Amino acid sequence: MEIDARTSWRRAVPLLALTWLNPHVYLDTVVLLGTMASPYPTWGRAAFATGGALASALWFTAIGFGARWLAPLFASPQAWRVLDGVTAVCMMALAFAMGLS
Fold first, then answer.
1. CA 44-46-52 angle, 5° bins
2. pTM for the full predicted model
3. CA-CA distances (angstroms) from residue 64 to 25, 27, 41, 55, 76?
4. Which end of the chain has fewer CB atoms surrounding its CB within 10 Å, N or C?
5. Residue 72's pLDDT is what?
6. What is the chain's alpha carbon radius of gyration, rounded to the nearest angstrom?
7. CA 82 → CA 50, 90, 92, distances in Å?
């Protein structure tokens, strides 16, 4: 199977835009992690940033391999219904807990 470079770029550009033009990337990375790292001394901020980057890389690698591993399971609509149901229950439980606090 031959891959056309123009086609792959046409498919990649929207994904790159979703990644780099997403304001949450900068809010989470710069504001949230920067604020959390601010009490540490300079060397501690570097260690905090390194740990955050490694944790992020590990997390997204695990998601990628997990998606490949679970793809046969989620080939059926029933599996998606179960996942949606579990997600709904978790969200309702969180909403209830937040309502009580």
1. 100
2. 0.55
3. 19, 23, 34, 14, 19
4. N
5. 93
6. 19
7. 37, 12, 15
- Backbone angles phi and psi of 9, in degrees to 5: -65, -40
In sequence order, what are the residues at sequence separation of 6 or more whose Cβ sits closer than 8 angstroms to the Cβ of residue 25? 19
Are 80 and 74 contacting, i.e. CB atoms less than 8 angstroms apart? yes
Angle at 30 between CA 25 and CA 16, to 5 degrees: 25
DSSP 38: T
End-to-end CA distance of the chain: 57
Per-residue pLDDT tens over the stretch 16-25: 888 788 888 7
71 three-state secondary structure: coil
